[in-house]
Amino acid sequence: MGAASVEVMYSLPLLPGWAEVNLDPHTRDRSVADVIATGMSGSTGTERQQASEYVHSHAVSAQNGGCGFLGVLAQPCSGAPLLAAVTITVSDRSSADLLRSAERTSITLGPYRAETKTVTLKHVGTAIRTTGIQPITAHRQPVQPGVVTRTFVPFPGGTIIINATSPATAASAPLLELFALLTNGFRLVTLTP
To answer: Angle between the 45-64 and 28-39 helix axes, to the nearest 10 degrees?
Structure first.
């Protein structure tokens, strides 16, 4: 995925329970530890370890994949952590091209289901969104089914991809609603040539 030829500034206000993870490799581990200490307080050591591995894997993958932002949800929930991640990537490819690529990957990786539709985001207007159960993975994690919302926001010269995922497929309906609410707050602040 190519980087955009213009500088893009954006913001994504996180919902309660979510936290931003610093992607800088020099401070990433401390950032992950802070997220786990805050979000997983009161959980067992095993749950904290599972959440820590999830957040760290997503932080490494986000940084390696050229993402500019990673937000995570890591909270205790009925004996297992509730885990979710949202990344933002800026690409110089068109939304249609990225959507075709995402659809080919889904078909290649197995029998998953997804719905594609046009949505209106409150602060940026029209975007393309795919939602459903799709293959997800992160650094040193196996490919597994996950709840996925990918929102493609076009801008002159490229597309911003907001990718929200969670391995909690049993909670797919409320997670898809949560991801829609989260991505609706996205703002395109400025484009500079």
So the answer is: 140
Phi-psi region of 85 (alpha: psi -120 to 50; beta: other; left: phi over 0): beta
Q: Which domains does the chain have, with CATH numbers?
A: 7-187 (3.40.1000.10)
Q: Which residues of 153-186 are buried (b: 16+ CB within 10 A; e: fewer)?
A: bbbeebbbbbbbbbbbeeebeebbebbbebbbeb
Of 84, 105, 73, the closest CA to residue 1 belongs to: 105
Model's pTM, two decimal places?
A: 0.89
> Distance between CA 187 and CA 182 in Å, rounded?
11
Position 135 scores a pLDDT of 84
- Which amino acid is it at 34? D
Q: List, for residues 42-99, the tens digit of each pLDDT value.
A: 899 999 999 999 999 999 999 999 999 999 999 998 878 999 999 999 988 887 777 7
Report the pLDDT value the prediction gives residue 146, as an integer from 0 to 100.
92
Q: How many residues does the chain have?
A: 193
Phi, psi of 29 (to 5 degrees): -60, -40
Opening angle at CA 129, ends 186 and 147, nearest 5: 95
